[in-house]
Amino acid sequence: MQIQEAELLISAPGKEQWPDTPYPEIVLAGRSNVGKSSLINALCGRKKLAYVGNTPGKTRLLNFFLLNRKLVFVDVPGYGYANISKQQLLRFGEMMEDYFHERKQKKALLLIVDGRHKPTDDDVTMLEFARYFELPIIIAATKMDKVKASQRQKQLKLISETLALSEEDHLIPCSSANKEGMDRLWEVILHYAQI
Ligand code: GDP
């Protein structure tokens, strides 16, 4: 999809601040530094819609981006910081549970993983969360420009097996650097957003 208009509606610390919008929402999550901001920017054809290099201090907010006045990306703070406090972890869990449990507009989880690595336990937990709430699952294996052609299939298999992906889930190899996979990602996003 060509993005003509992209606007940050709000960075919401809690459900009281969620925007009162009717648009379908795609939730984008991934561990910190996985390349989520870069992917959001690549999908939207923007250089700095989402801030690349988010700091741990910004980890408590859900960012709601309205695209072309018809679709919302919900940018979940990157997880997996080693030195996060128990209280912060609890807060993150509550925030996600509130969202998955209460937000009617949600249409799919787009989980971003690093194409070079085995997904983490935190990735598996996030996926289980989405499965529990019966949210369709799209996996973007990003940074594929860094994976040798000879290693590609092996890496994708590792990701698929670690996340126990099923037939209905989508695993899409991509790269924000060379834009691989962007059309396929949009195709699947728009399918679930039903727009
Ligand atoms: P975030 O913390 O998940 O939002 O990750 P960022 O988007 O800030 O990216 C983290 C680092 O990975 C940055 O140095 C990016 O330039 C780099 N990066 C992100 N996506 C890609 C990609 O597709 N290919 C390559 N080679 N580097 C990437």
From TrEMBL:
Its cofactor is Mg(2+). InterPro entries: G_ENGB_dom, GTP-bd, GTP-bd_ribosome_bio_YsxC, P-loop_NTPase. Residues 22-195 form the EngB-type G domain. Keywords: Cell cycle, Cell division, GTP-binding, Magnesium, Metal-binding, Nucleotide-binding, Septation. Belongs to the TRAFAC class TrmE-Era-EngA-EngB-Septin-like GTPase superfamily. EngB GTPase family. Necessary for normal cell division and for the maintenance of normal septation. This is Probable GTP-binding protein EngB. It comes from Massilicoli timonensis. The lineage of its organism: Bacteria, Bacillati, Bacillota, Erysipelotrichia, Erysipelotrichales. The gene is yihA.
